[in-house]
């Protein structure tokens, strides 16, 4: 079976081992064929059982965000990558960062670095959205406020003892704009604080309320 025949049968850019084996089912030694496809870089193994087509055989770009959902799951994009995706922090982030209720993992693959941070199940089950992208692909990502909450809690050595200290950290260290902070939903952040049992997130919720109240006063 030629590479062009395999490409014709597998419609998606990202596919699993079962899909590949089904495509090669008429061959006497499908495992040897897979080894050959990998050697020629017709397909690329992202991790065991998960593949993408090599550059010469791609019909269109695959979603790295969707790939991140599949490499280790259940999971969704959050933390630094999500903050950069939304334009909340100015830095460009290369590693695909996600949260998961399962144990933290790190996968250095031929197509990029995927990092997963374990969070409590109660914190995991809220604050995510499904994003549709090109070519019938879709991925799960934290909402902007959840990505920020996940980031704050992930910084274990971060000592915050007041809303003022939280503001200083967000604006000076993370370089987040005050207007964004003012737009956050304080009630949802307080819910995240409860789910995480996080004092730091309670300070964030308090800060958002203070900024919003100050904004209302300035408009009177």
Q: Any chance you could write out the topology, listing elements then pairs?
A:
Layout: H1 3-9, E1 14-16, H2 17-23, H3 30-39, E2 43-47, E3 50-53, H4 64-71, E4 76-77, H5 79-85, E5 96-100, E6 105-109, E7 112-118, H6 121-124, E8 128-133, E9 137-142, H7 144-154, H8 163-173, H9 178-183, H10 186-196, H11 199-218
Parallel strand pairs: 5-7
Antiparallel strand pairs: 1-3, 2-3, 4-5, 6-7, 8-9
Helix pairs in contact: 5-7, 7-10, 8-11, 10-11
Verbal overview:
The protein has helices spanning 3-9, 17-23, 30-39, 64-71, 79-85, 121-124, 144-154, 163-173, 178-183, 186-196, 199-218; strands at residues 14-16, 43-47, 50-53, 76-77, 96-100, 105-109, 112-118, 128-133, 137-142. It folds into three domains: 3-57, Arc Repressor Mutant, subunit A (Orthogonal Bundle), CATH 1.10.10; 64-143, no CATH class; 146-218, no CATH class. Helix content is 46%, strand content 20%. The protein is α+β, with helices and mostly antiparallel strands. It is built from eleven helices and nine strands. α5 (79-85) runs antiparallel to α7 (144-154), α8 (163-173) crosses α11 and α10 packs antiparallel against α11. The strands form three sheets. It has a four-stranded mixed β-sheet, with helices on both faces. A three-stranded antiparallel β-sheet has the order 1-3-2. A two-stranded antiparallel sheet has the order 8-9. The protein is elongated and about 75 Å long.
